[in-house]
Structures are given as C-alpha cells and as structure tokens.
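For reproducibility, we list the full input for the calcium ion complex.
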Amino acid sequence: MKNQMRCLTALLAVCMLAGHAWAANSDDVALSVTVSNSVSVTLPTATYDFASVALGGQSVNTSALGVDNDSGGIREDYSLSMVDSAGGWTAVTGVPSTDQYAIQAVFASTQPAHADFAANDDLDDGLAAAAAGDTAFAVDGWVAADKGYDAKDRAGTHERTLWLRLRMPSDITVSQSNPFATVWVSAAAG
Ligand SMILES: [Ca+2]
Ligand SMILES: [Ca+2]
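The corresponding predicted structure, in tokenized form, follows.
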C-alpha cells in the first residue's frame, strides 16, 4: 500500500511538471508573416532619342521618362548608374571635349532647365549606382515628393519622372553608333 501511494504521488508530480496544457487556464500563439511583394521598378519607356543636337550643344528630354514603382506597396529609393556603349564617343563629367559627351540626371515632376543640373547630378561610365537624394539627382529646393526616394506605389501612376541632360562633344573625329549609352534605375526598399 505504501509503495502504491509512492507511485501515485510520483505520477501526480510528473503530471504537474508536464502539465502546461493540463494545468494552465490560458495559452498563447506567436504570429509570423512574410510580405509576398518584391521591390520592383519599371521604366515604361525602353528607349529615348535626343534626335538632332548640334555639336557643343545640349538637350534635356522633351518627353517625360516615367519611373514606375510597381511593387504593389513597398516604398522605394532609387539609385542611378550609366554604361557607355563601346567605341565611338566617351562619357565624361563636366564640359565634354573632342569625342566626349556628358549625361546628368534629375528626378523632377516638370522639365528642368539646363541651369538646374549640377555636378551632383553627373552620371559616368562604370561607376557604382549612386543614390538619389535631396540634391543628388535632384534640383535643389524643388519639392521633396518629386525626388528619387521614398516613392510610394500608386496604381496606374508613374511615381517619379526622370530628366536626362545630354551635353554633346565639342567636336568629333569619330561617329557614334546608337544607343550611345544606357542609364539604369535601381530600386531598394526605403
Ligand atoms: Ca506604380
Ligand atoms: Ca542636383
């Protein structure tokens, strides 16, 4: 009888130790979720032709280059980079010389004037993608909501507009085949 009591007591102790479900009058569940959206940016215009521009001259795209956050809801920050096409003219920053050209870029809702572009808007061949900010790839003092960061996806809308300024060679010894350069817009969650 004594042994039976000992067994019963031991069994009761085990039940109480293991008795999370047996003894508690509440319990919890931890929740997790993964966003199914991905960061995504699309340029609805695949090419842009500056058409005829004189040597030593300059041009800013006359039709808007839309930048579409098509992530479905992730806010995005944009970076820009450029690749110069092989052969022909060479990309530079500053005033282009013989067989050289320069490209500058800003995000803005309306077309900027040439004077609105600055050195912090320069693109050059082979550089790592550089982030857009309040002055980088932007016109100082213009509306922050137009600049190349914190772009909220709005369905059916191009959230940002990109303007590219081309500065032509001062003079040329070689012809340039087209496309002469490719500009890349990269997005990151921001
Ligand atoms: Ca959109
Ligand atoms: Ca700038």
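The pocket of calcium ion (ligand 2) is lined by residues 106, 118, 120-121, 135, 138-140 (CB under 6 Å). The two ends are 73 Å apart (CA to CA). Both points were considered when choosing residues for closer inspection.
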